[in-house]
Amino acid sequence: MSDLPYGPPVKVSPLIRFGRWSFLTAGILYGAFHHSRLSKKEAQFREIEAKEKVIRDAKMKEEKARASAAEMKALEEMISQK
User: Fold this and answer.
1) Which of 10, 19, 45, 65 is the most exposed place for a label (fewest CB within 10 A)?
2) What is the distance, to the nearest Å, from the Cα of residue 69 to the centroid of all Cα atoms in its chain?
3) Is the CB of residue 8 less than 8 Å from the CB of residue 1?
4) Rounded to whole angstroms, how far apart are CA atoms 71 and 77?
5) Number of Cβ atoms within 10 Å of the Cβ of 69
6) How much is the pTM?
């Protein structure tokens, strides 16, 4: 114990100890409650995103097909001009 630079440790008041544990417990409960609430919101958001993704993917596939067809047409025109 003599190795400690400020002397032996001081006993912490039971009131302070109770307050620390109370705030720790309250913080854990607060975090669990808000995590649950935010998880529900995120699940709803993911459902909406999944529905929109199907539509978005179909549009992207269609646009890609149009772009490919336009590119092929442009290449055919270039070949036929020579």
Assistant:
1) 10
2) 38
3) yes
4) 10
5) 10
6) 0.53
